[in-house]
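Standup notes
- DV: blocked on the single-chain target, sequence here:
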Amino acid sequence: MEQIVIKVENAQKTYRSQKEALKAVKGISFIVRGSTCFGLLGPNGAGKTSLMKMIYGASIRDNVPNSSISVFGFDPVKDELQIKYLCGVVPQTDNLDQELTVKENLLIYAKLYGINKTIANKTITDLLDFMELTDKANANIKELSGGMKRRLVISRALINKPKLLILDEPTTGLDPQVRHMLWNKLRQLKKEGITILITTHYMDEAFQLCDELIIMDQGKKVIEGTTTDLIKNNIEAYVLEIREKNNVTQLKINPDSLKDIRKEIFLNNIYLYSDNYKTLKNITDNLDSINYHLRHSNLEDIFLKTTGRYLNEIQ
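- DV (later): unblocked, structure below
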């Protein structure tokens, strides 16, 4: 029988100050199945981190009717400690102890979990090897690169051999080599049976890792599904990117083609979407020196469409 690791129903979160009440999460529901990677996507301020904190007990959800969260059957409000023993959490920022070595940072966490020192040393050796940090075991944190620090934070989250790994924007600011390396490690962890919950701003990261995902905007869930289904069912198959919209006057579009085309404007670019490749290809014949790119639609196009980042439709 398929295991449900996380079940969120009508989750809501309001932050209150003396001046106002800010509703960060507005009635979100979803489930995360065992041994899968589930993604939370959305622009800054969408409520992703607030939702994550409610899931692992670092923040209390609003007490409203029909609202509940369970993690392995535990309620984060009542059973925070049990959930923490089953989870590993990677926060947005690298909160390592700067005065300690790599190994000492891991030993402290092992002690917090009550792990026997012999077992802890063996686990640490394995984790450093897994994250390719063995030669940095005795290095001070200040000597590490950004990518090494991020790998160490993930190693620390794995010290208790969690069943659920929660990662809040784990590869932000990292170069492509480190990012791809971490993706590969996360895939290995999923194969070993660890369930992963991740927030990310990188659409390629979500596409590479997530079995299912939701896109959030202004505290609400706007769309949910597998990456393949989201692209297949919610956007046209092809997109023509035209850079520098001031050059759009050079376009010569057959009026009969307009019914097959949808236009989005984002920043200084124009995107023409269509299921008819030939229609878009014919337009490129008239572009001359305009900088353009004709390609398949992807998850980033879904993101921009569902979070309302596009402007005028073709008239």
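- Follow-up: The chain has ten helices and 13 strands.
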